[in-house]
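Assess this:
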Amino acid sequence: LLIERLNNKVKSSHEAESKLGVRAVGVLPITRAEKGVPIERMYREGNQNAFSESIRTIRSSVLLSGLQSPRKVVLLTSSIPDEGKTTLASNLAFAFAQVKKTLLIEADMRRPKLGRVLGDDGKRPGLSEFVTGQADAGKCIFEIAGSDLHVMVAGRVPPNPLELISSPQF
């Protein structure tokens, strides 16, 4: 009983909603990547129906939440590493790209991962080069073949990521 009482982890989406006072737009099931398919591409290339349906539910929730004034930007963040931001962002971007042209911008300036899992060779300039003026947007953005998804990776890791993100140019 004491261990249960001291455990302050959120155990369900209902508990998170009540503690934070906001409604969850969706919940992703815990799943494993299929052989040969990175989890960040599971929506597009995988065979996980429950996972894909959860991504579609989140996409629909975001679209429906902006009926009066459609949203043009969706930001994903969290307070700790390894919570699945890249997984959700890339799969949600694939889902949005089925509906309309979509640009996915990776702003993880400490541990960028998106380029590797989406097929970038690592030589392309990205957000850091765009913000510092070393490259224009056209050179930083690439298209995922067979989709309306365009991606701008983080680019070269800057010496001080916080400075770059909080700069006026950003």
